[in-house]
Design brief:
The structure holds two protein chains of two kinds. Chain A is an all-alpha fold. Chain A is built from nine helices and one strand. Chain A has helices at residues 2-7, 13-40, 44-64, 68-93, 102-128, 144-153, 156-177, 180-184, 194-206, and one strand spanning 134-135. Classes of the chains: A mainly alpha, B mainly alpha.
Amino acid sequence: MLLWVAENRELRTENLQMLALILFLFFGAICVAGAVNLLVQSHPINSALSLIVVMASLAAEYLLLGAEFVAAVQVIVYAGAIMVLFLITIMLLNAGKEERSKGSRVATLLGVPGVVIGGVLVAWTLIHRSDMGNVPIGALPGDPKAIARLLFHQFLLPFEVTSVLILIAIMGAVVLASRPEAIARPHPGVPVSEPERELAAAGKDHR
Amino acid sequence: MIPLSYYLVLGGILFACGVLGFLIKRNIITIFMSIELMLNGVNLSFVAFAAHWHVLSGQVFVFFVMVVAAAEAAVGLAIIIAVYRTRETLNVDQVNLLKL
């Protein structure tokens, strides 16, 4: 969209840059608000929904940087696949509100000031002590063709290694998430006998 | 022309929020989401540097980070399901034994 605006000669360059800055600040504010909302919500499903907001606004920031492929993958893989996995797990485990404990209070007391001080220091240094220059709008077209050329020529070996990684992750997920008794018991339809159930209940009390 | 430091600061804020969530949250799923938030902050700096220096490799690295994040999410959530099955809790304070 920005590229189309850039081609439109009637808009002057200053106006375009102001528009880009406004869009950056708008989506950045949404992004930070979502991230802070993730922290303050106590129910995991609210945290997951605010993480989706963060990812969607990050996709808009990628579009602003001219990275169309990354923006599309961000929406499809992150906001689509990974977050659906999170939501399914939350619903499957029926996760409720998290309880506050002593360790959590200590972590809040020590962690919040520490991270805020560190973050402000880094931000101050980045803004005041750096002359890194500006990011031109749409100067680097991140279209799928250029990325595919890079991915299948220069980064071919890492690409293939990631496919092996995905395969290992699939197998690990299947092994970890499958019920142990489904593997151990020969007939899946046979109900558990009474002594076994008592043993299982007794074992649960000891934990 | 947006200054590069703005993008880096936004990525830093996201990373700091992720670190903070990792520290103060007690629900194991929310801790996992904080890790995803940190990865997103790093991804933003990758894309910003790629646009700044006119090198497309940064965007390819974002692709790899996303692949690793997807694999990590699949395995991690399977581990969470296994932990919940044996412990029946999602609170990390109550998960204090290494054996399942």
